Amino acid sequence: MQQEPKTSPQVPTATVVKLSALVNLQQGCVVSREVMKKPTGSVTVFAFDEDQALSEHTAPFDALAHVIEGEAEITISGAPYRVQAGEMVVMPANQPHAVKAIKPFKMMLTMMRSAK
Predict the structure, then answer these.
(1) The pLDDT value given to residue 92
(2) Where are the domains of the chain?
(3) How is domain 29-112 classified at the CATH fold level?
(4) CB 49, CB 28: distance < 8 Å
């Protein structure tokens, strides 16, 4: 019996991909796919169905949220920011933040670790 090749969750290098096609919206869910992970940071693509959210949390590194499609509210240190396709916001390290889909949306999240 022949086994199917294992696929990596990461995107192969030197390959052109459509960013919005990396994750599919799923009803009532938040879906993510890691695109790249290095010791200095990572890039992950998320798809949120309407009203789905990531609860408030902190991270020890800066994060850049770039909205690919749809609309969301990203709260940083208690202040809400409404973001739409083509817009981005930086979530500073060690500041509480949360994400909620106003409409179904997709975003690319780039996390950057600071040098020690």
Answers:
(1) 96
(2) 29-112
(3) Jelly Rolls (2.60.120)
(4) yes
